[in-house]
Amino acid sequence: MRTTMARRAKAVPSDPREHARSIAEAVDEAWHGRYGGSRIEVPMSVVAALALVAREAPGPEQLDRLGEAAERLDHEGFGLLIQRLWCEFAALRPDLNPRTIHLWSWIDEEQDETVLRAIHAVGQAALRRGVFERFGPDGWGDTDLLGMLLQTMKSRGARNGIGQFLTPESVTLLLGRMNTPKEGQRVLEPCAGTGTMLLGAAQAMREDGLDPTTCEWWANDLDPLAAALCAVNLHLWGLGWRVVVGCGDGLLNDWMHEALRVRQVAIDEMERAWQVARQIAGVRRLLDLPHPEDPLSAHLRRAQPKPPPPPPPPAPASSTFDAEAVYRQARLF
Ligand SMILES: C[S@@+](CC[C@H](N)C(=O)[O-])C[C@H]1O[C@@H](n2cnc3c(N)ncnc32)[C@H](O)[C@@H]1O
């Protein structure tokens, strides 16, 4: 049985696209209603982090526990939780990390109270609309939740300028069926938006019993936010490790070389960071140093529900006054 968060989630639309729309509208309202500001990549980053953790959670119980903890956290604690989720993603997918920077760079900046409260409100809105209700590899695996968010939150004028009108999943699936990639092929999308064309191609492959992770998936977009969302999507949709996402002019060829170069630098950097982390952990073990509590753990601990007070001890039986005996002996009536 799903726990509080899920029970309180409004009835979740069975159509994944309608569900995505419902989340996007609630998030848009929460962000602007709390004066979040013009940086729409921030609320998108919150939803992307929650969708990623829904995919990676080992099971619904762990997700429920996380949902409940997230619900209890205050705005500072919730900001730290989102920060931690992005760190986890960086460790899991260093190859995609540089492309997603547009989504998480705000984490390193000092946030004012109002923005932190808006971030918190966005998280609560997404959770209440059931972002965790679709979980595991298939959870958000056939829907462009992030594309829906981009289209909802970005102004029509800003999208008009670069023709950013994304193709719905039903159409990209049809196109995918008409030109299904073969295993091991390279698939290129130089103006990918949030990547729905690649989703359609991958879905069509799966329908034919083919494994899309055998393909090379190359995506690019001029808009860094769309490219960042696309990078997250390619992981959410389970397209595997042969994924390269660029951000440049798709009419020129050099985006591919640049994307590949940036990807390799990020993988090498992460490898070095792991080496240093392993050395530090080794030294700490050797010196038997205590592990200081990190700020997120401290917030989670403080947000734990207080255990109910112990029941009062039973009233001690009177050893000096035996009413029954007095009654029997005195025979007052
Ligand atoms: C009509 S949308 C289509 C996106 C995606 N192919 C789909 O079907 O959903 C066009 C996308 O191309 C991007 N774009 C426009 N000019 C571009 C260029 N010169 N190089 C790369 N991307 C470009 C826009 O940012 C937008 O995301």
UniProtKB/TrEMBL annotation:
<dbReference type="InterPro" id="IPR051537">
    <property type="entry name" value="DNA_Adenine_Mtase"/>
</dbReference>
<protein>
    <recommendedName>
        <fullName>site-specific DNA-methyltransferase (adenine-specific)</fullName>
        <ecNumber>2.1.1.72</ecNumber>
    </recommendedName>
</protein>
<feature type="region of interest" description="Disordered">
    <location>
        <begin position="1"/>
        <end position="20"/>
    </location>
</feature>
<feature type="compositionally biased region" description="Basic residues">
    <location>
        <begin position="1"/>
        <end position="10"/>
    </location>
</feature>
<feature type="region of interest" description="Disordered">
    <location>
        <begin position="295"/>
        <end position="321"/>
    </location>
</feature>
<dbReference type="GO" id="GO:0008168">
    <property type="term" value="F:methyltransferase activity"/>
</dbReference>
<keyword id="KW-0489">Methyltransferase</keyword>
<keyword id="KW-0949">S-adenosyl-L-methionine</keyword>
<dbReference type="Pfam" id="PF02384">
    <property type="entry name" value="N6_Mtase"/>
</dbReference>
<keyword id="KW-0680">Restriction system</keyword>
<dbReference type="InterPro" id="IPR003356">
    <property type="entry name" value="DNA_methylase_A-5"/>
</dbReference>
<dbReference type="GO" id="GO:0032259">
    <property type="term" value="P:methylation"/>
</dbReference>
<keyword id="KW-0808">Transferase</keyword>
<feature type="domain" description="DNA methylase adenine-specific">
    <location>
        <begin position="159"/>
        <end position="258"/>
    </location>
</feature>
<feature type="compositionally biased region" description="Pro residues">
    <location>
        <begin position="305"/>
        <end position="316"/>
    </location>
</feature>
<dbReference type="InterPro" id="IPR029063">
    <property type="entry name" value="SAM-dependent_MTases_sf"/>
</dbReference>
